[in-house]
Specification:
By secondary structure, the protein is α+β, with helices and mostly antiparallel strands. It contains four helices and four strands, in the order ααβββαβα.
């Protein structure tokens, strides 16, 4: 039973917590009722997912500060995924971001 908890239940709980924390962080950043055209175009560009050491960082496209960070072991990722994440992966919208986080953190 203990092996089951360590192998499946604990990582699953961590994944769910990571997805929830990212969603909460994204929703807490409220936009003004009327946005300048530049901000609207930035919002339409989506998100950037980047691996920085052992941190998987989520950025709004065009911003320099991450809106969420998740600890990850890069050695557990396939080589191609690790390289793409180090370069940065552009994400279209929140639902795609949640799918990608589940893929990389799960």
């Amino acid at each position: 039973m203990r092996r089951y908890l360590v192998k499946w239940l604990i990582p699953a709980a961590l994944l769910v917590a990571a997805v929830i924390m990212t969603a909460v962080a994204l929703r807490q950043q409220t936009a003004p009722a009327v946005q300048p055209a530049q901000e609207i175009s930035m919002a339409e560009q989506g998100y950037l997912l980047r691996l920085e050491g052992i941190t998987l960082s989520v950025y709004r496209q065009g911003e320099s500060e991450p809106i969420a960070e998740h600890e990850i072991l890069p050695s557990l990722l396939p080589e191609e995924d690790r390289k793409r994440l180090e370069e940065g992966i552009t994400i279209r919208d929140l639902s795609e971001l949640q799918r990608r986080l589940e893929d990389f953190l799960g």
